């Protein structure tokens, strides 16, 4: 058996930085929730906060593992197949299953999972290609896209030309295609089909509307200085001016809700509709949590004060449930889409 040809991924510095930045909040959540569990040991906290501790710890551990193994991202051309490897994770691509190889720019999907600036790993959703199994330090630009009978893979070898030539030598009579991204993804044709609003989308916009109505209704009753942040002990430690505090969340809801209406639709109306539905479903879960926190803030400032421990427990539980539901539901949507 011949020694495998090994190609390493392109520069990784941006990926390191972004991984570290994203790791910090999850470490903070792990510490704060664990501290709450230790400082206030009761059945309610044990039931609702423990899952948050476990999930945030697992996510933190995943980021740490990826940070540790990031320098080892490599692509091995062995006798039997192409192997994509990072630490304990590995994918094998038999040469006889490869249908197409192209170097192209991928279109961003806001619902991507493990995709950061300078790094994309595991199953990542893209607006133009759908789910792509990524082992790449190029999240969007100049990704070597490998299409097989069952999957798509994205990689970023540092020696791109050498890798493609070596791969070509492994696959008889195979031509590697360099995609003209300006023609493929730069020109978008307008489609004349009538827009249809899903129930999920309508509920999201109702939350936006209600947040404005509640803010306007309570505006005269609220003080000029609004409490907007509470410490772990439940004491206020942050304030904002009245107008900013009341309308920041409604305006943020509006801007986020407008994103699917202003981004390019791509060449497939069906893909755009699926993306739009998934996006608004994710926002419905997020908006529900933020709207609860928004109402708590407004009521607290007019003198109606819920117990902070109950509020924080409900909020953390809502965040955990939101993450779990999105992971399960989006995985089912992707699986059903592949089946169809």
List the helices and strands and how they pair.
Layout: E1 5-8, H1 13-39, H2 43-69, E2 74-77, E3 81-86, E4 89-94, E5 98-104, E6 115-116, E7 119-126, E8 130-136, E9 143-148, E10 152-155, H3 160-170, E11 177-178, H4 181-184, H5 199-218, E12 225-230, E13 236-241, H6 242-262, H7 269-301, H8 308-339
Parallel strand pairs: 5-11, 8-10
Antiparallel strand pairs: 1-2, 2-3, 3-4, 5-9, 6-7, 7-8, 9-10, 12-13
Helix pairs in contact: 1-2, 2-8, 5-6, 5-7, 6-7, 7-8
Give structural notes.
By secondary structure, the chain is α+β, with helices and mostly antiparallel strands. The protein has 3 domains: 5-71; 90-184, no CATH class; 199-339, no CATH class. It contains 8 helices and 13 strands. The chain has helices at 13-39, 43-69, 160-170, 181-184, 199-218, 242-262, 269-301, 308-339; strands at residues 5-8, 74-77, 81-86, 89-94, 98-104, 115-116, 119-126, 130-136, 143-148, 152-155, 177-178, 225-230, 236-241. Strands 6-7-8-10-9-5-11 form a 7-stranded mixed sheet. Strands 1-2-3-4 form a 4-stranded antiparallel sheet, with helices on one face. Helix 5 (199-218) runs parallel beside helix 7. The protein starts with a strand and ends with a helix.
């Amino acid at each position: 058996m011949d020694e495998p040809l090994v190609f390493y991924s392109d520069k990784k510095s941006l990926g390191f930085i972004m991984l570290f930045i994203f790791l910090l909040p999850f470490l903070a959540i792990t510490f704060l929730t664990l501290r709450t569990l230790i400082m206030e040991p009761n059945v309610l906290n044990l039931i609702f906060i423990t899952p948050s501790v476990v999930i945030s710890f697992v996510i933190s551990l995943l980021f740490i593992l990826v940070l540790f193994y990031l320098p080892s991202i490599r692509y091995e051309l062995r006798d039997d197949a192409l192997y994509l490897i990072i630490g304990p994770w590995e994918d094998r691509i038999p040469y006889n299953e490869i249908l197409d190889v192209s170097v192209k720019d991928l279109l961003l999907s806001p619902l991507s999972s493990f995709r950061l600036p300078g790094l994309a790993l595991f199953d990542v959703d893209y607006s133009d290609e759908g789910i792509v199994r990524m082992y790449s330090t190029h999240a969007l630009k100049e990704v070597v896209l490998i299409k097989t009978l069952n999957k798509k893979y994205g990689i970023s070898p540092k020696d791109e030309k050498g890798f493609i030539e070596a791969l070509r030598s492994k696959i008889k009579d195979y031509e590697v295609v360099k995609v003209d991204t300006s023609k493929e993804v730069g020109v978008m044709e307008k489609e004349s089909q009538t827009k249809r609003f899903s129930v999920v989308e309508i509920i999201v916009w109702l939350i936006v509307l209600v947040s404005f109505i509640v803010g306007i209704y309570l505006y005269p009753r609220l003080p000029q200085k609004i409490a907007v942040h509470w410490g772990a002990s439940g004491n206020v430690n942050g304030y904002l001016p009245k107008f900013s505090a009341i309308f920041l969340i409604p305006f943020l809801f509006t801007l986020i809700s407008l994103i699917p209406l202003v981004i390019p639709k791509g060449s497939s109306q069906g893909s755009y509709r699926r993306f739009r539905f998934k996006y608004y479903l994710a926002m419905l879960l997020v908006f529900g949590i933020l709207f609860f926190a928004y109402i708590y803030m407004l009521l607290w400032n007019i003198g109606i004060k819920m117990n902070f421990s109950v509020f924080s427990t409900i909020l953390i539980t809502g965040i955990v449930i939101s993450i779990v539901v999105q992971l399960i539901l989006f995985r089912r949507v992707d699986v059903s889409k592949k089946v169809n």
